[in-house]
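Quick one, tokens below. Sequence please?
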């Protein structure tokens, strides 16, 4: 049987936990001793600490990242049939909540280099029924938010940031402009604390962020059955709370978030340096791009395998490479194998926003994410790179 010490993981949550075990165990023990499992004091403490870290006025915890997106759209009081623009290349939750609320997801293409939606993709999709935009900061890098926010203001649109993969990343407004954390620039930001996230709990969890006092009040009520005070229901809401144990864990881990993101970034630079030497012209694969308008926190390190196309057998070279890595004891993942326009669930409810979605389809056929986490060692990365070198005979 293979020993744990020789196993290479996509995410090493156990190794991360061992380094902060005493703090985490003590935080959980305090919750257990108080038995305040729902809305205990640790929830408010974590919300305040995360608010301070992000530089945003309000942070409201909830049950998970998908709930955060749903609650955000509910707080905007959109009507059935209203259109919400989302990237076609993203995790399903971003668009799922739009359909769930009877709204119309309008799918737009993304930039090939950054995986993120750009302002021109959005502009071409705007119609008189458009009410909101949901930019997704995919894989850890911010969308170019300055132009997106300006476009939203021009058309009077809400902006809900999906920040599930980029917490701690920053965006700069112009060369000498102000710097903001992702998730704090739109009207509402949403994030997930799924265990594998850059800031992850030990179960499910999520949060919403806003500087708007009125939206914050609505969000808190919606997440708690529409209540402002107990048994007084002002809105139709839902039951979505960040439980106290998860808040306690997150409050410990928040202190380490910058160092976690730095470790991810350093690992990403090592991958890029080694892989560029193998394929300096990008003949076989392309490494992630970093834009100078923001920082990258590398929730995923994602290659694009060259020569793939949506029209060919899906992921032919990519899939063979993934299998070759697996045979060598190296995990990898495809985020995401189908763009939203190819998902059956959206066939009858989604609109295509003003252009064909060729880039999203091409990315789905060519992306491959390598192991990326805070405990990744150079020796482990060398194993990954060597296996890729062998596959391409470089």
């Amino acid at each position: 049987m293979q020993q744990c010490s020789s196993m290479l993981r996509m995410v090493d949550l156990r190794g991360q936990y061992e380094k902060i075990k005493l703090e985490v165990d003590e935080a959980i023990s305090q919750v257990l001793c108080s038995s305040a499992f729902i809305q205990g004091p640790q929830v408010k403490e974590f919300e305040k600490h995360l608010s301070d870290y992000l530089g945003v006025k309000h942070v409201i915890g909830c049950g998970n990242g998908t709930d955060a997106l749903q609650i955000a759209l509910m707080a905007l009081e959109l009507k059935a049939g209203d259109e919400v623009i989302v990237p076609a290349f993203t995790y399903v939750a971003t668009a799922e909540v739009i359909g769930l609320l009877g709204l119309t997801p309008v799918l737009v293409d993304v930039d090939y280099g950054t995986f993120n939606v750009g302002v021109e993709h959005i502009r071409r999709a705007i119609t008189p029924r458009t009410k909101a935009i949901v930019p997704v900061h995919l894989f850890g890098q911010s969308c170019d938010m300055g132009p997106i926010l300006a476009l939203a203001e021009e058309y009077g649109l809400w902006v809900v940031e999906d920040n599930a993969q980029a917490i701690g990343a920053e965006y700069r407004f112009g060369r000498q402009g102000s710097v903001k954390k992702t998730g704090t620039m739109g009207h509402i930001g949403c994030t997930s604390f799924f265990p594998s996230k850059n800031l992850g709990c030990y179960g499910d969890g999520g949060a919403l962020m806003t500087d708007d006092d009125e939206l914050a009040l609505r969000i808190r009520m919606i997440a708690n059955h529409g209540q402002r005070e107990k048994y007084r229901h002002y809105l139709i809401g839902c039951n979505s709370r960040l439980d106290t144990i998860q808040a306690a864990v997150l409050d410990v881990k928040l202190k380490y978030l910058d160092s976690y993101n730095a470790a991810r970034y350093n690992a990403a630079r090592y991958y890029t340096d080694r892989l560029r030497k193998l394929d300096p012209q990008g003949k076989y694969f392309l490494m992630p791009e970093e834009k100078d308008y923001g920082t990258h926190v590398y929730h995923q390190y994602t290659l694009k395998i060259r020569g793939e196309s949506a029209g060919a057998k899906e992921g032919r070279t990519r899939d063979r490479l993934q299998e070759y890595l697996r045979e060598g004891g190296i995990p990898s993942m495809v985020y995401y194998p189908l763009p939203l326009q190819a998902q059956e669930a959206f066939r009858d409810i989604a609109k295509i926003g003003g252009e064909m979605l060729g880039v999203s389809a091409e990315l789905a056929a060519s992306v491959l994410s390598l192991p990326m986490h805070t405990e990744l060692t150079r020796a482990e990365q060398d194993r990954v790179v060597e296996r890729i070198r062998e596959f391409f005979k470089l």
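The radius of gyration is 21 Å. DSSP finds 13 helices and 15 strands in the chain.
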